[in-house]
Write a structure and sequence with these properties.
Strand order of the largest sheet: 1-2-3-4-6-5
Distance between the termini: 48 Å
Shape: elongated
CATH class of one domain: Mainly Alpha
Helix content: 55-70%
Largest sheet: 6 strands, antiparallel
Number of strands: 11
Radius of gyration: 30 Å
Number of helices: 32
CATH architecture of one domain: Orthogonal Bundle
Strand content: 5-15%
Amino acid sequence: MARDGESPLPPDELPTLAGDSAPSGVDSDAPTLVHVDADAPTLAAGSQAAAEAAPARVKIGNYSILGRLGEGGMGVVYEAMQENPHRVVALKIIRDAFAGAQAVRMFQREAQVLGRLRHPGIAAIYESGRTPDGQHFFAMELVRGLRLDEYLRQHAEEDLPQRARVRLRLDLFLLLCDAVSYAHQRGVIHRDLKPANVLVQEPETKTVSISGQAAAVKVLDFGLARLTEEEGEGPSPATLPGAVQGTVPYMSPEQVRGQSELVDVRSDVYALGVMLYEMLAGELPYDLRRASLLDAARIISETPPRPLPAALAKTPIGRDLSVIVRKALEKDPQQRYQSVAALGEDIRRACDDRPILAQPPSSMYQIRKLVARHRVGVASAAAVIALLVMFAVGMAIAARRIATQRDRANRSAQVAQQVSGFLVNLFQASNPNQARGKTVTARELLDTGAASIQKDRAMDPEVKASLLGTIGAAYSSLGFFKTAEPMLQASLAVRTRLFGSGSKPVADSLRDLGLQALARGDDKDAVQYYQQALAIDQRIEGPSNSDVAALLNGIGTALYQRGMLPEAQSYFQRSLAMRIKLDGPDSPKLIPMRANLAEIAATQKNYAVAASQFQKDLELADKVYGPDAPVVSQLENNLGAVMFIEKKYDQAEGYYQQALALNRKLLGNQHPEIGLNLANIAQVQDAKGDLAAAAATFQQALQILSAKVPATDYSLRFVDLNLGSVLVRLGGTKNLLTAEGLLRTALTADEQTLPAGSWDIADVQSEFGGCLLAQGNLRAAEPLLVDSFPTLQAKLGANDPVAITRALGRLVALYEGLHQPAQARHYAQLLTGAGPGVAAPRHPLGARPGRGPRRPRPGRGVGQGEPQMRGELGDPRSAFSHQ
């Protein structure tokens, strides 16, 4: 059956690139969404006359209705103003007449799908729920832009050469592929991809390119999406066998035949193939304008697609694109690209004049690729016969080299297909029909995959290495570091044996191990892994590329964690300069390096500079990635850190609470990042003097972190130290005994991790000694207090007179208690000379003012697994949230 609100049956209403039918926008049941006004396009394009204003001052829950954007058979979408936070949203509700159990289930399911997707190329959901009067709703990002087909009509770029015009469209299509591929990685199959469900937000400049300033693409309408881990029992209304749901011209053969059990990521590959054909040819690959549903199903299932226009197909890039489109539109899913990522990779190869993977390359094909990359050399050779002979010899050598590259490319394609097949089968385990109604968690899926890899002794070694790395990285992103480590090491071992220690696959494994080392708190290992990967990448790919820039940033992050600030700053600056050269000065890819340099500025007490940079990056991240992107929580945390240093505690707590709320939404309640957010909030509570609240919040953080990270991790050492300090100040026998255990653990971990003579170790020794002093255990306190003081005096001194005053006060009390007046007078004289002073920050997140918090927690970067931040190698435990 056709979906509610859309009928593919009347032949003259089949949607085409010409845009005769209205779009569905963000609403699975509203194919007639329109602009609110002609100058400010919102969710999708359409007839302005169709827009209808809602009654004035109408409210639905926390939302004031501004106008109606569109409606369908079951739902209505409004433009609305959310009261808190104050922002304009797209608000979708169910019509009262259709609010039955199945409609509500589908409505909630769409909200559930959107809730797991956080990508700059997908319209974000903010909230879903039910008003007190029973009205179901969800609020989404209000996207202002043009439908893909309208955008392409308005940007025909006829004054550009054909190759440049095609390249602009391919860059736009690659952004779409990235968004859909991300959804697939999160277990979501769209099933209704078409130009009407893709909006393009125009950039300030006119160039559409994936490098530098790019037009933003937003994928909408996940009302028909299928989850690879369906929750609940049995098939959902969107996956009933025999149901024909979607938009016919974009349906794959299996989809148009109602074989919903065969629909998977390759069905979306097919729909993207249709869209790519349209973007290149300006028409559909099949003429369905007069076809009934049965005829359309037969044509799609049996008839070959029309070839691309001859004017395009005869060009070098056009010949590649013809092959790519033909493979994406294969009738048999097994013959298509096995993933959207593979489709995107072949398009990038075609754009770069590299051999594509969709066909076994012939000798002439390889030569055409070589000529395309070396036009000047070929032209010069043609001028002189002698040079022609030399060129022929060179071509023979190059052909052998290209054949090697071709074989490797084909081998990579085979490996990618096998890896994709393994993951598809793994996701099938979560299919309700196989899971027997049981909800399968991400951890259970990973465990199943890991067990399958270990058991399959016949598995191709290269495939096994790739899968070990993929699943190991997934474990790490979920905080299961102990499980991730041996899998990543095993992947490295296999790749070293297969390709050699200086190969690119080995560099990739070393990079993953470096990131994992940061996640588990081993900064020294992280630096070693990153530096090994850097040496390989620079030798293979040259001194300036995105991988090298990411590794430089990662090394800087690890060095920062080790307290080597000048060295870290140098690496951050090198990474930033390289990124500017590669991506331009306004690229959002610069956020990680700029944020890390702003953190250095805060360390150097340039708080205004740091806060200004964090605020600018937060605004850019919100604009480019959306308000619910992981990088937003990182930058909110960093702003809170600066506010804390400047003793603006209410503002600091506000930023920290925002970061915590977003991370809970993205990561759940038990991720290490949540523990770190709680530790930050506890520190503010401590600074405000609410010791009981601080102790309770630190306890929550400790419970999460102790289950996720080793004792030597800086974040856990920080919580042990600060909670111990709070309990000492609260007093009481039970608190002091608990504090003693925490501080002993923190000291042991510091001594195992940090170099001898570190002020961090001395700081913990002094606090531990103070705890023993409070219990009356003077003899045990004496060596801790005496040994730590010279280090504190030498390395903190005038920078933190409060810390020195506190340490001296403990020594005076110690020797008075031991009845050694001469020693007590000695330290009392030093105490008089120290003066009260004002505590200066000794760490990027500030020092303990008076009897306030010890030092801020190390932040944790969250965006390492997210596509928009992939490769930036952000540190999971920086003083701020490293990018």
